[in-house]
Design brief:
disordered N terminus; mainly alpha; 267 residues; Arc Repressor Mutant, subunit A; 2 strands; single chain
């Protein structure tokens, strides 16, 4: 799979291109992609996968500037259109950033940066409350367990205070929603896993318009507050199973009231 001969660029033997070619060769010989050449999947997808492999292996690090497009077409042995498609995809994913002069740089690759495209994808997809809460059950329950095992006593006490403070906002949905974010984020912080925490925030933010409506239904906030306190008490007591069980009940309450609000909105 090579460029047509009339359009094939001349070899570039600069140190930068030789170094990049060496990285390409190391990936090829490692056998990560089923063979020595780009030939099985769409070309752009394979190029993007190889660049990601270099990043994961440490061959490319945050802040590294990729070679020029011409140098990369030589190294990969492809034409510019699939290369540009791959670079565009990685830019949309937040893995690369485009700089002036047409050069691309590896981003900071922080969890929040990597989760950003996931958030965008979900925000434009059809909202499915059952899928959301199924995903939250997987992610959030593990965060609660980790928080119970890892959080320092000061943070446990803050979680308990945030839970109890919710009692003052049972008739103030706006204030409670702000407190609710702080409560859940404190648990995520206590878990000590930035990537899981970022995923949890993405899942929490889905369907917020529906949740705003649900929080204004009489009795919904009061029940949430009681469940927050149950979760916080279990965290404070270092009881991971009790904390996860209480949090599961809370998620079921949120799911059910969200579903009811959606039904009322559509009727």
């Amino acid at each position: 799979m090579t460029r047509p001969s009339r359009d094939k660029p001349k070899p570039d033997h600069t140190p930068e291109n030789r170094a990049f070619s060496g990285l390409i060769e190391s990936v090829r010989t490692a056998g990560d992609f089923g063979g020595p050449t780009l030939e099985r999947r769409p070309i752009a997808e394979q190029v993007a996968t190889r660049i990601m492999s270099m990043i994961k292996s440490g061959n490319l690090k945050s802040g590294d500037r990729l070679p020029t497009e011409q140098q990369m077409t030589i190294a990969f042995g492809i034409s510019r259109p699939p290369l540009r498609e791959a670079l565009k995809a990685l830019t949309l994913m937040g893995v690369l950033a485009s700089r002036q002069g047409g050069r691309y740089t590896v981003t900071d690759l922080t969890p929040s940066r990597l989760v950003a495209p996931f958030n965008t994808m979900l925000s434009v997809a059809d909202y499915d409350v059952h899928q959301q809460f199924e995903a939250r059950t997987v992610v959030d329950l593990e965060l609660v367990r980790l928080c119970t095992l890892r959080a320092p006593v000061e943070l446990r006490q803050r979680i308990r205070k945030l839970a109890v403070d919710g009692q003052a906002f049972e008739h103030d949905p706006v204030a409670f929603r702000l407190l609710d974010i702080e409560f859940h984020q404190a648990i995520n912080t206590g878990a000590g896993n930035d990537l899981l925490s970022a995923l949890a925030r993405v899942l929490y933010d889905l369907g917020l318009d529906v949740r705003r409506t649900a929080s204004e239904v009489p009795g919904v906030i009061a029940k949430s507050v009681g469940q927050h306190i149950e979760v916080a008490d279990a965290i404070l007591a270092h009881d991971a199973e009790a904390a996860a069980a209480a949090y599961r009940r809370h998620l079921e309450h949120v799911r059910d009231t969200t579903t009811q609000s959606m039904a009322l909105t559509r009727s």
